[in-house]
Amino acid sequence: MFDTFKKSNVFAKITLVSGIIIFFLQLIYEHTFPMLGVITIIIGVVLQELISASKAELDKLRIENIDLRKKIDDLEKLKKHY
């Protein structure tokens, strides 16, 4: 699961860097599509934010899952005693 996040994060960073490169190339050569670099930078930033939010939510769910497993184990122990 974390391998997927790592690959997604690398993809988002590549998108962001390529957007910055395109933006600076547009400043030098004005023959490219206007705003392409800015749009690519925005896409890269949005992808990074979505990935970090998804990872934080996954970590939160993992912690909740561990807590629930502990509660289930405690209930199983109580069940065996009675």
Write a structural description.
This protein is mainly alpha-helical. It is 89% helix and 0% strand. The chain is built from 2 helices and no strands. Helix 1 packs antiparallel against helix 2. The model has no long low-confidence stretch (mean pLDDT 80).
Helix content: over 70%
Low-confidence stretches: none
How many whole angstroms does the radius of gyration measure?
23 Å
General form: rod-shaped
Estimate what percentage of residues fall within beta strands: under 5%
Look at the helices and sheets and give the structural class: mainly alpha
Measured between the Cα atoms of the first and last residue, the distance is 40 Å
Coiled coil: 51-78
Keywords: Coiled coil, Membrane, Transmembrane, Transmembrane helix
Transmembrane segments: 10-29, 35-53
How is the secondary structure organized here?
Blueprint: H1 2-28, H2 36-81
Helix pairs in contact: 1-2
From the structure above, extract its key features:
single chain, rod-shaped, mainly alpha, about 80 residues
Brief synopsis:
The chain has 82 residues and is an all-alpha fold. It has two helices and no strands. It has one domain (2-81).
